[in-house]
Each structure stands twice: as C-alpha cells, then as structure tokens.
Write a structure and sequence with these properties.
This is Heptosyltransferase. The chain is α/β, with parallel strands linked by helices and 337 residues long. It has helices at 9-25, 63-76, 89-100, 130-140, 156-168, 194-206, 221-229, 246-251, 263-268, 284-287, 315-318, 322-336; strands at residues 2-4, 32-35, 51-54, 81-84, 107-109, 176-180, 211-214, 235-237, 256-260, 275-278, 294-297. The protein has 2 domains: 2-140, Glycogen Phosphorylase B (Rossmann fold, 3-Layer(aba) Sandwich), CATH 3.40.50; 156-336, Glycogen Phosphorylase B (Rossmann fold, 3-Layer(aba) Sandwich). A 6-stranded parallel beta sheet has the order 8-7-6-9-10-11. A 5-stranded parallel beta sheet has the order 3-2-1-4-5, with helices on one face. Helix 1 runs parallel beside helix 4, helix 6 packs across helix 7 (221-229) and helix 6 crosses helix 12. The longest helix has 17 residues, at 9-25.
C-alpha cells in the first residue's frame, strides 16, 4: 500500500500518529510512504515503511517533469491501496491522472466523497482539526485511529547527542522547562514576544525551576538572544544548536513546555511532557499539537483566528500576560501530576 503525506513539518509530524494506526492495522504488510524531499530524513530509520520516496512536487520549475516522475513511480509500485493523507487539489489531481493513464488502484482512501476516492467519510462540520478529518477517513476504511500522539523513530545518535547536551548544561529530569519562543519569520504574528517569554522565564526561575532551555531554528536566533540577554546564566540558549530529532528527546525529561504555534511544538508533542501552546492569529481547533498533555491558550477577542500576516496592534498576544500564562501552566502541570 501507499501513503501520501507532503505539507509542512507540523502536519507531517501529526500524521505519524496515523502512520502508527495504519501499521498496526496491517501487520506484516508492505507499506510505502511518499513525502517531500525535505521530510524524507524523518523516516530514514522508521521500520513501519518498506520504502520512502520523495518527489519535489512544490518546485516551481520542471512541474510537468516531476508529475510524470511521480506517476511513473506510483504506477511501478502496483499498489492495491492508496491512503491519501494530504487530500488537497494536487493529490486529487495526481490520483485522477493516475487513473486516466490506466493505473487503477482498487482501493483509494481519502477524506472526501468524490473522485478519485472510493473510500471516504461523511463531510465534517468546519472548522475541524486536520487530525479529526484524517481519523474519520481511516475509520471509514475500517482502520482504528486511536494513537494519541505523534510517533517517530528517534536514532540512537540523537539519544547520545542529547545525553551530552544535558550533561554539558546540567539539565536534570524534572528540573528544567523548554520554551519555543519563535516561529517561521513570515508568520511572526504567531510569536508571543521575547519580553514576555523573558518575564515568564524569570518567574519560573524565581519559583525554583533550575533551568529554562530555549529551542529554535535559524529564523529565531534573534528572538532567543533577546530573551537570553534579560535572564541569568541559568537560561540555556540552544537555539540553532539542535537537530530535529533532538527536540522530543530534550522535551521528554522536562517539567513543562511553553511554545508558540510552530513546527517545533509538534515535534515536542512526541513527548508526554505537559505543554502549553500560545495561539493568536491561528485557530487552536486547527493547529493544536496532538496529545492529552497539550493545551492551548488564546485571548478572547473578535479578531482571533484572523490568519493575517500584518497587524497594527497584535492584541491577541499582548492580552496574554506572563502572569496569565504562568497561572495556566501551573494548572496544567498540577493536572498532569
């Protein structure tokens, strides 16, 4: 069988819970995954898949060549079942083209009752989390969808690497928090703000938390540096120093996690650590990471969930004071105890 999942990192990580459901429903079956080249490395050591292949369908140049490459690759697979976890116009187009060129995969599972799918659920009310829609699709195919959080195969190399990081920075299990204060630069309105994160870090440290760890990527270096400059040596700034597989391993021993709506939060949700995700212009009903250990916090304003790229006031974030976030995190940690 063939699984399709492209999209952004957060969506791909979320889908790994579905991969787990499918693997458990078809023990011993040969399962292939088609994803984007940038995410292929996530599944290098994933025993659920016999094959992982990637075609850069998002590249602006050479689109027809890549479409032909994809059709040839899938046709050569002789699949009897395709599960489309992408379910957008592009995946529907490609599967339709596959049918038109004579490759008739018998069972085609998607989330809409329309061609090219012959297995799909009833339409769900909107807005709906992508996971809810995908789980409904699997259930329509008789696949139990119950895995509560993402499942990634974390290489031993990264286990050893995180062990070294924790020893180097004196990070002891249950005695540090992880903050993810950034996000993609283009979506900067999703950032709660360096000053607020710094105030929250100082509050937790004053309450006895030994270390606060900052995690982020290249777009978030300045944000993390601004936080570090207003905190003491107890703050550990690992922004730009971690690999993707390091993130869940660093998060699992932490006491708590506070994050913006960012791909890193989805990686953190592989862990069972209590996590608060701060939402402003994006809808928690659509973007919340998986897991019963994860909650979201959002201001009550008429303009929330606007998904705008610019804003003159950014009230959705300024109304969420450090004290309010601190109180919600404290409640979350107490509930998890």
């Amino acid at each position: 069988m063939l699984l399709l999942k492209w999209s952004a990192m957060g969506d791909v990580v979320i889908a790994t819970a579905l991969f787990e459901d499918i693997a458990q429903a078809f023990p011993g079956r040969e399962i292939h995954l088609n994803t984007l080249p940038v995410w292929e490395g996530l599944f290098v050591e994933d025993s659920r898949f016999s094959s992982v292949f990637a075609v850069d369908l998002r590249a602006r140049q050479g689109q027809m060549q890549r479409i032909v490459e994809w059709l040839q690759r899938v046709r050569a697979g002789h699949y009897d079942l395709v599960i489309d976890l992408q379910c957008n116009d592009r995946s529907r187009l490609l599967l339709s083209l596959l049918w038109l060129v004579g490759c008739h995969i018998p069972y085609r599972l998607g989330n809409r009752r329309q061609f090219p799918y012959n297995i799909a659920p009833a339409e769900l009310p909107k807005p709906v989390h992508t996971m809810t829609r995908c789980r409904a699709a699997l259930e329509a195919g008789g696949i139990s969808a119950t895995t509560p959080r993402p499942v990634l195969s974390l290489p031993q190399f990264n286990h050893a690497r995180v062990d070294r990081l924790m020893k180097a920075h004196e990070l002891r299990e249950g005695h540090y928090a992880v903050f993810m204060p950034g996000c993609n630069a283009k979506g900067y309105l999703k950032r709660w703000g360096a000053a607020r994160y710094a105030a929250l870090a100082n509050r937790f440290h004053e309450d006895g938390l030994v270390r606060i760890v900052l995690i982020g990527g290249a777009d978030e270096v300045d944000e993390c540096q601004a936080i570090a400059e207003t905190c003491g040596e107890w703050l550990v700034n690992l922004c730009g120093q971690t690999e993707i597989f390091d993130i869940p391993l660093l998060c699992q021993p932490a006491r708590l996690i506070v994050a913006n709506d960012t791909g890193g939060a989805h990686l953190a949700s592989v862990s069972t650590t209590p996590m608060l995700v701060i939402c402003g212009p994006t809808d928690p009903r659509r973007v919340k990471p998986l897991g019963d250990n994860v909650v979201t916090l959002q201001a009550d304003l008429p303009c929330i969930n606007c998904y705008r790229k610019t804003c003159s006031h950014h009230s959705c974030m300024s109304m969420l004071t450090p004290d309010r976030v601190w109180q919600r995190v404290q409640k979350l940690v107490q509930e998890a105890a």
